[in-house]
Write a structure and sequence with these properties.
Length: about 160
C-alpha cells in the first residue's frame, strides 16, 4: 500500500509516493538522500543515532513511519549550520573533541539542540540525563557533556 506525502526537511519540501510501511529514517536517508542521520541499532530504538526533530521536538526516526511525518517539519543535522556557520553545539563538539568515530554525533546534536532550548542553563547531571537515549561507544561522554555545557554558555 502506498500513500502521497509532503514532508518538509530543513525547509525543503519533499512530495513523494511512498510505501506506508517506510520508516522515517529510511525516508530521510534513502528518499531525501540526507545520510547524516544514522542507524546504529537496526531499528530497535535503543541507540539514538537516528535522532532528528519533528516540529522542533527530538524523536528517534527509526521508531516512526514516514507517513506519520506527513505535513510536518523535520530537522536533521544537515540543517544545523546556517549560512555556512556551524551551530554553537557543533563548534563546541569540535573544540572539546567530543567525538571519535562520530557515528552517534548527529543524533546527540539534534537531541542536545532541543534540550538547550528547554533548559538553556543545564547542570552536568541534567545534561547526562538528557543523553540517556543516545549511546556513544567511543568517548565515555565526558567531553560530550563538556561541549554541551560550553555551548549553553556560548548561547546564553
Ligand atoms: S537506529 Fe538506533 S534508536 Fe534508531
Ligand atoms: S563517537 Fe563513536 S559512537 Fe560516539
Amino acid at each position: 500500500m502506498y500513500k502521497d506525502v509532503t514532508i518538509t526537511i530543513n525547509g525543503e519540501e519533499y512530495q513523494e509516493h511512498i510505501p506506508v510501511r517506510l520508516l522515517l529514517v529510511d525516508f530521510i536517508r534513502d528518499v531525501a538522500g540526507l545520510t547524516g542521520t544514522h542507524v546504529g541499532c537496526t531499528y530497535e530504538g535503543v541507540c539514538g543515532a537516528c535522532t532528528i526533530q519533528i516540529d522542533s521536538e527530538a524523536v528517534k526516526s527509526c521508531l516512526m513511519l514516514a507517513v506519520q511525518a506527513d505535513g510536518h517539519e523535520v530537522a536533521t543535522v544537515e540543517g544545523l549550520a546556517q549560512d555556512g556557520k556551524l551551530h554553537p553545539l557543533q563548534e563546541e563538539f569540535n573544540e572539546h573533541h567530543a567525538l571519535q568515530c562520530g557515528y552517534c554525533t548527529p543524533g546527540i546534536l539534534m537531541n542536545a539542540e532541543e534540550f538547550l532550548k528547554e533548559n538553556p542553563d543545564p547542570s552536568e547531571d541534567e545534561i547526562r540525563e538528557a543523553l540517556i537515549g543516545n549511546l556513544c561507544r567511543c568517548t565515555g561522554y565526558v567531553n560530550i557533556v563538556t561541549a554541551i555545557k560550553s555551548a549553553a554558555e556560548k548561547m546564553a
